[in-house]
Amino acid sequence: MAINWIPVEPNYKSYLQLVVLIDMAILAIIAASLYLFLPNNGWLPAPLWFGVPWAAITVFFGLFWSLRRYQFTAYARTEEAMFLRRGALWRLTRAVPLNRIQHVEVRQGFLERLFGLAHLTLYTAGSGGADLSIPGLALANAEAMKAELITTIANEQTDESDHD
Amino acid sequence: MTEFVWQRTPLLTIGFFIAKEVRNLIKNITNFIPVLAAIFVTDSTWLPYAIGGGYLVFIIVSAILNHHFFMYALTDDAVHLRTGVFSKKSLTLKYERIQQAELDQTWYFRPFALTILRVDSAGSAGKEVEIPGLSVELAHNLRQQMLAEAKHASVSATAAEDDVGAAPAPQPDLVRSYGIGELVRAGIYDNKLFVLLAVLIYPVSQTDILEERLVPWLEANVTFIEQSLWLNIGLAAAALSLLFVLAIAVTVISFYNLTLTIDNQRYQTRQGLLSIRTVSFRYHKLQRVRIRQNLRARLLGRFSMRVSQLQPSASAQQQQSAAFNLPVLTQSGMSELCRWLRLPNANQLNWQKISPVALLQPSFWIALTAPITATISYLNVENLGLALTLGASVWLALQLYAVARWQRYGFTQAEGWLGVRSGVFGSKQNWYPMYKAQQIDVYQSPWLRLLGYADVIVYTAAGAEVIKYQPAALATQLQHEWTATVAQNRKRWM
């Protein structure tokens, strides 16, 4: 039962790091503006009380977390299903049988475009948004996978002739 | 048929549109908080009336307009709708795409032999269409036609199926009615009393009526209340039991004359005293069967059963009342229905427990409660012995509960079904057709990874089921097995 896991693009790690940096920068800007522009900010603790944890978190997410997440993220396409591994500390392996796919979508966010990445999302019924989304694919690859999946699904449904 | 005959609904149906507006108002009540605030803040006496009156006028005008612009046309293969006052909406619903069609005979249409036809299509948006004010006969025929079309589209007409479809089937496979006695039982254990109380308490607590009006009134008029404690308790008990009886009455009214019909793969319930409601599903659309029994139901020896179909998450909440629901079933009635639903035989099930490791985490949190309870009670009563006893007994009770919960939990696989049971005082069983699963997850938190275990999560079209604490290798194996089961199955699943 060995699954042939395919890793995502190495760019995905840089992408994750950039996302971490941007998020942390937003936090830093909020904190800094509190210190700079709040009129009577005497009650705030010394900036280091925020600065040191901030730096620690940035380093943790920027180096450790994004590396682990990149290493663990992988997908696999078998005859029957699409598998996805995701997460760094909390890990999830998701399987979607191909004959349950409702529609397929390739999306590319603004940051992803900087790295030439895209993600491929498979939707199933009734799951309320909890679907399989493969991040960190090269755009061309994602498009190819989408096309290939759609053909498979379309062929499948024609021979689905019986009922219960 | 190319020619559309656009029709308006009868004038009587303005009542329906008004009801719809009122429902919208209640649904969006939070939007009116600023207006309500203005009413409370202002000193002017006329403003509340102006706003209330204005809203009344708005409701009536918009109901009239909505009625005027609500046009429908019925053709041989589709329903066409044109609605909307300002933003026009045009909708075509092919019969073959219709998931479900129900007649809703509400109390305000029943005297006129009119009905509401409610149609659900597939599609992720879960478009629901309601056509009010059709005559019962027309609506009935239409519904038959829609469901027949839906069936023909879905079924690659096998000979046997065609025979059944062609021959008029006067005798359904199974008819069961549930009398008043049974419904009273359902009312007792499926009591909405607490819901009712919660609904009542909220608005009461928001205003000062209780403190400003009721309490002084009671003090002024019923002086004897303060004289006797027992009288107080008696009054409270009487009020509660009155509510209890009212809640039973609500159940009896809404399920009055409950009839279950099974006819050629179609399962239908019909119920209601004032508004008659019909809910049905076709067997191949079944996504989940939930059998429940709470403590009261257990004492009365009854079960309740709910069958879910595919529910778009957006409309999942509001459709709760429209689910296929049998509130009261005897043991034999339940077994009979289980056979009709082709659930595996209850006697031949191999329930699997989850690993005792699952007890570690709850036990840890429960162990924390003991010192906390002891400390709090010591601070309150200043009696060390009592405090320690209290802490220990609370800990023991919770720990026993956790063990019992673990002990009673089980999952099983039989005849293509996945069953999960749970419940300490009552019991709950969820059954899913395995081949209709949508996604299968294996999930590991750092804690689970440390122990070498994983949770398996099965997503179905009617909700997710988590099976906790499987050994990691087994979890992956289950995932692969179940995925293969789903993938190799070519049956229709919705």
From TrEMBL, chain A:
Superkingdom of the source species: Bacteria
Keywords annotated in UniProt: Membrane, Transmembrane, Transmembrane helix
Segments passing through the bilayer: 15-36, 48-67
YdbS-like PH domain boundaries: 70-148
Keyword Transmembrane: yes
InterPro entries, per the entry: YdbS-like_PH
Protein name: YdbS-like PH domain-containing protein
Upper classification of the organism: Bacteria, Pseudomonadati, Pseudomonadota, Gammaproteobacteria, Alteromonadales
